[in-house]
Design a protein that fits this description.
With 448 residues, this protein is mainly beta. The protein has three helices and 33 strands. The protein folds into two domains: 1-172, no CATH class; 235-448, no CATH class. It is elongated, with a radius of gyration of 24 Å.
């Protein structure tokens, strides 16, 4: 690959301009490297102060990869409207405070359907500060659409991710995929077709996921092994499962806590599970609205949870996955979970008998009020080291609109027993309590 400073003079495709309100007058620096003359041009995408690399639709993959790799602190990479096809991963260099911006969703399209090499990700960035992706589409990545690792100050805004092939076997696992990152904002994005999760945030801290649409994924939104997250204003519909909050063993960061899920629409998540074989999300029944697993200090409120055929809301332990682990530090039970003031309607009408969990839920139908899976379920599995009591895990449920609140007593489960349904107790009384409201998430640069 030719160095960018050599490729630039012969390539009108890459234009370096100063970014002061779209003009070249406000920045003294106009070259990619010392001694390289600037090629002046105006670009409506160059609205930030600092240097901007304007990339036209005629740019080659080599030129674009070079621009990404040689990015410098404070740069804007501005991709004009057009479709850009890649055979390799597009990896960002190690500069800080970088913005990658396009002309809009569906206008600037990064197409990875021909990707052959470069790892499991389409876009990739690692160990930088102040990264923003905004206003473009990523489509048809063989692996994950956009992964960032160990980034502080990350924003995804108005990003579309999709897979266009009707064969789900060609779909990547994750759409937007921040891991081990801090101060994460994902807003106004639209993700569809992921074979694991549309929006997935793992082992991260200080997170806001708001006003996004996640649909036709296995899981719409997942918050995994993370601390301090606000998830609100999202529309999770037509996935296998809408929104999931969980903790898994064997990871660098465990003990997920301080998660608020509120004012989301979680509707009609009845898509058949198409996760890859062996993926833990493959255990989730089609028709799942929301569940929290093995987290503590979780507040779920003012959501609309409707028309999810398997179940509305669940509080479960990792034991339900029936997957052994050797991590001595992992705590597999949920605690201090507070569900209140959510709206429920038409959930649990058709359990997913093709899944093991859905099959178990179906066995309890004789015990359910109204003959449908109740809106709120607890698996009934308790930390055996805690003192016995009516509510040892401190689960508080104030759900007057729920069809029922049931303790499934999976700790006593025997699917071969003819009276299996008799162990299920549908009574909200043990959970008639409140917990302190969790504080909102805040971090530098976050605006309402």
């Amino acid at each position: 690959m030719a160095p960018l400073d050599r490729a630039l003079p012969g390539a009108i495709a890459l234009l370096v301009v100063a970014c002061g309100s779209g003009t070249s007058s406000s920045s003294p620096s106009t070259s990619l490297d010392a001694g390289t003359p600037a090629i002046s041009s105006s670009s409506p995408l160059c609205t930030r102060s600092g240097r901007c690399v304007a990339i036209s639709a005629k740019a080659t993959e080599t030129e674009i990869s070079g621009a990404f790799a040689q990015v410098k602190d404070g740069d804007t990479l501005a991709l004009a409207a057009g479709t850009y096809e890649f055979k390799n991963q597009l990896a960002l260099g190690t500069a800080n405070n970088v913005t990658v911006v396009g002309a809009g969703e569906g206008k600037t399209i990064l197409d990875f359907h021909g990707q052959k090499v470069g790892g499991d990700d389409g876009l990739f960035a690692q160990s930088v500060k102040g990264l923003t992706y905004q206003d473009f589409t990523v489509q048809d990545t063989p692996g994950n659409a956009s992964k960032v690792l160990a980034v502080t100050g990350l924003t995804y805004r108005s990003i579309e991710v999709k897979w266009t092939s009707p064969s789900s076997k060609s779909h990547g696992a994750y759409g937007l995929y921040p891991v081990q990152s801090t101060n994460v904002l994902i807003e106004k994005c639209a993700i569809s077709g992921a074979s694991d999760s549309g929006i997935y945030i793992g082992q991260s801290q200080q997170i806001v996921v708001r006003n996004n649409e996640a649909f036709k994924n296995v899981a719409g939104i997942e918050i995994e092994n993370s601390f301090f997250a606000d998830v609100y204003g999202n529309n999770a519909h037509d996935n296998t499962a809408g929104i999931l909050v969980f903790d898994l063993p064997g990871l660098m960061q465990e003990g997920g806590h301080n998660i608020r899920i509120y004012m989301n629409t979680i509707r009609s998540n009845n898509t058949e599970n198409f996760a890859a074989m062996g993926d833990i999300v493959g255990l989730v029944p089609g028709g799942t609205g929301f569940f929290v697993m093995a987290n503590h200090d979780v507040e779920v409120f003012q959501n609309t949870i409707v028309s999810n055929k398997d179940s509305g809301s669940g509080i479960i332990s990792y034991a339900l996955a029936q997957m052994p682990f050797t991590d001595a530090h992992y705590y597999e039970w949920p605690s201090k979970v507070y569900l209140h003031d959510n709206t429920y309607m038409s959930n649990g009408t058709m359990p997913d008998y093709a899944s093991q969990i859905g099959l178990v839920l179906g066995t309890g139908i004789p015990a359910y009020p109204g003959g449908n899976v109740p809106d709120v379920l607890w698996d009934g599995i308790v930390d055996p080291t805690l003192p016995a009591g009516p509510n040892p895990m401190q689960l508080c449920i104030k759900e007057p609109q729920a069809s029922a609140v049931c303790d499934m007593h999976f700790d006593q489960l025997d699917t071969n027993a003819p009276d299996e349904a008799k162990i299920i107790v549908c009574d909200a009384t043990p959970f008639d309590c409140t917990l302190p409201s969790l504080p909102p998430v805040s971090f530098p640069g976050l605006t309402p």
